[in-house]
Design goal:
alpha/beta; TIM Barrel; 2 domains; 13% strand
Length: 498
């Protein structure tokens, strides 16, 4: 009898423990992407700063990403700093432009170029630095981020050709509510908020405040059903110098190497303070049970684009077509998301197959990797356009051919002698798709309504704040770059955590 009582007591305790565990809120992973813009090729002690940071992180078992400037890599090679290179290459290596702040910087030379010309110019100026970083470090850079605020949209197409899958940096030119997103065919960890809140102040004496802020961020993210991601950056040179090396090039100045001035070093006490801040913050974040440090390449695995591996059924197509409105935007369906350009490609493929096969299409559909937005501004229409079905059907075939040849949304969708913007075409295409998917015959007349690309709201308006970088010539700004960026908002969509 006593044995039964003991068993009952044990079971009661186990039940109570299980109930208590179930009552506790479930925690979810908080991912920390730690990255370093490794750029100073003027002050030799910055080499040792990069080495110290890399070796500390390796000893702590914390992976990071070092985004290296091409000239920095070449300088390490010339100085014979194989020890620094070896320490850094134990982590991920990214690319951070060829010469960083020497003029013209990417936004400057891209500021008057269209999409295709800008792609070629970025390749001409930057490919050599990319290849030097890969050669010197023995690994292909996993990511790119612009120098300072010198952001431009055209590099996305070049980077994609080079096999880069991640844009890792901070800026305000484009963003998606502070969360990771897909744009220009690349995963973007860009325009986030949390990492900036964990940065040191000028004296590097705010460690306790940063710890408190991290606790706040961690509590919020770990309680979210999808967890969260913190993008936190530093510069190895900022740990040891009194002012940034590239102020040599401030306000558009472009002196020759013989006139470059070395920034003075911080005192030994100040350097002790900077490294203590960093090491203390890393160890503190590491102590939280749900924190996961990941590299740049790790984020690509963490945010897979499942739409590209999916076979879409006609049931899926109905959902996609139903979600299209005159405010053209991305779509999210369960574990995958579609950009507006992918929606257009998917529905155009379906309608074209219906037209050419003259029968109900039962097979599955796939999409290619995120077609780019238009290369130039689309036309404007003042009212809806009506066309006969025969003309619309021919246009569907023409758009399919354009997509296949250019991997890009056409700026002008021609219906005979009338050109309409692709937004209007997509809304009409979705309406036709809904009709065909319901088993009905095509309409005798197709109406192409006025429509707009709603995702353009995620691209910043031109202002001095967007281009806030002391290296730019005074007054630099580029409404043109943001206009080109708006056209590529066709490619924007959320990046969903696996």
């Amino acid at each position: 009898m006593c044995a039964w009582k003991r068993l009952a007591a044990i079971l009661a305790l186990l039940f109570a423990a299980s109930a208590a565990a179930l009552a506790q809120p479930q925690s979810h992973p908080v991912y920390v992407v730690l990255w370093f813009d490794t750029e100073d090729y003027i002050l030799p002690p910055s080499d040792d700063a990069a080495k110290r940071l890399a070796e500390f992180l390796t000893a702590e078992g914390v992976p990071a990403t070092f985004k290296v400037v091409g000239e920095k890599a070449r300088t390490l090679e010339r100085r014979g700093r194989s020890d620094v290179i070896a320490a850094m290459r134990r982590h991920d290596i990214g690319y951070h432009a060829n010469t960083h702040s020497q003029h013209p910087t990417p936004a400057e030379y891209e500021s008057g170029m269209d999409w295709n010309t800008g792609l070629e110019e970025f390749t001409r100026r930057e490919r050599g630095g990319f290849e030097d970083v890969a050669r010197i470090f023995g690994k292909t850079p996993c990511c790119y981020g612009q120098p300072g605020s010198s952001w431009a949209p055209q590099p996305y197409a070049a980077l994609r050709q080079w096999g880069v899958k991640l844009y890792l940096d901070e800026g305000t030119q484009i963003g998606l509510d502070g969360k990771p997103f897909w744009y220009g065919g690349l995963l973007n960890i860009f325009n986030t908020k949390e990492g900036e809140q964990l940065r040191p102040n000028d004296k590097w004496d705010n460690l306790e405040q940063s710890k408190a802020k991290f606790r706040e961020i961690y509590a919020r993210m770990s309680a979210d059903s999808s967890g969260g991601l913190i993008s936190l950056y530093f510069h190895p040179c900022e740990f040891i110098h009194q002012w940034f090396w590239d102020l040599n090039f401030a306000d558009g100045a472009n002196p020759p190497p013989s006139q470059w001035k070395r920034p003075p070093l911080k005192s030994a006490a100040e350097q002790k303070q900077t490294f203590a801040y960093f090491e203390g913050l890393v160890r503190y974040m590491k102590s939280f049970p749900e924190v996961r440090f990941i590299t740049g390449s790790g984020t690509v695995k963490l945010f897979p684009d499942l739409a590209h591996a999916r076979e879409f059924s006609t049931s899926d197509l109905k959902d996609v077509a139903e979600a299209v409105t005159p405010g053209v935007s991305f779509q999210t369906h369960g574990d995958y998301a579609l950009s507006a350009s992918e929606v257009l490609e998917l529905l155009n493929t379906y309608v074209e197959r219906e037209i050419t096969e003259r029968t109900n299409t039962a097979g599955a559909f796939t999409i290619s990797e995120n077609p780019y937005g238009p290369a130039v501004d689309p036309p404007h229409i003042a009212h809806a356009v009506d066309v006969p079905w025969d003309q619309f059907a021919r246009t569907v075939g023409d758009v399919a051919d354009f997509l296949a040849r250019n991997h890009q949304i056409p700026a002008d969708v021609w219906l005979g002698s009338v050109a309409v913007p692709p937004e209007s075409y997509l809304v009409a295409l979705a309406d036709v798709g809904r009709t065909l998917l319901a088993g009905n015959p095509p309409p005798s007349t197709v109406t192409l309504p006025m429509a707009r690309l709603a995702t353009m709201k995620y691209v910043a308006e031109d202002s001095p704040a967007v281009w806030n970088w002391p290296i730019f010539p005074k007054g630099f700004h580029s409404a043109h770059l943001l206009s080109v960026a708006g056209l590529q908002a066709w490619t924007l969509k959320p990046a969903l955590l696996r």
